[in-house]
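Most newcomers find our protein records easier to grasp once they have seen one. Read left to right, the backbone structure tokens trace the chain's path through space. Nothing more is needed to start thinking about how sequence determines fold. An example says more than a description, so a record of this kind follows:
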Amino acid sequence: MAATDGRTGKRPNSVWLAERPPVRRKAEQPAGLDLDKIVAATVRLLDAEGLAKFSMRRLAAELGVTAMSVYWYVDTKDDLLELALDHVMGEMRLPDEAAADRDWRDHLRSLAGEYRALLTGHPWVARLLGTYINIGPHSIAFSDASLRVMKASGLSLEQITGGLSAVFQFVYGFATIEGLFNARCAEAGVPEDEYFHQVMSAVGDRPEFAETMRNSTKVMAARGGTTVQEMRDRDFTFALDLQIAGIEAMRDRAGD
């Protein structure tokens, strides 16, 4: 069934649903420019400067061409952002589901880790995932792999989407906050560990946070990890194990 806009009954706008004729280079178009180069430059700019500063004019300057030259290849900025989103989705390595020595839990951990790396490596992705319908080839490949792995968990058909939501919405939230913290540190020009200790020191000096700090200090000491990255990794691993344990519990409950 085709996806539709609930208000108008029309298909949603998407570069993947458009029937755009192939580009034929004209004499006034820059030689050597193609869609792959445009998308790659888009990703570089988004990584370096963020979504808020991105514009077609800025992209054209990066490529050394006019903005009109870019529009030979894409109709709108939204189309280009969709293409960039699916391009980086292709960075995620999908698990080898035929591997005999790994089961669905290993594959799910692998997919979750790849999704986290995508969101932290490209902080702009989190916003675009909620903006577009994400039906590019790499997005579909990731969705299909996730669905197959969740089916292998033994959940019933009506439970599968909830299982996927539990895992990947957790990863989305965890990694989005992680990426925002990384960006804040980069903007401040301060390493993550140094910034973390600055914040903890500032809060620790305030009497109204004394009880919170005592409790937090005990919890963090019990968790372990000497760097921000180590603490995050421990939390992510344990939280993901909780999601998997919940999937197993709900599967087994249904079998009782």
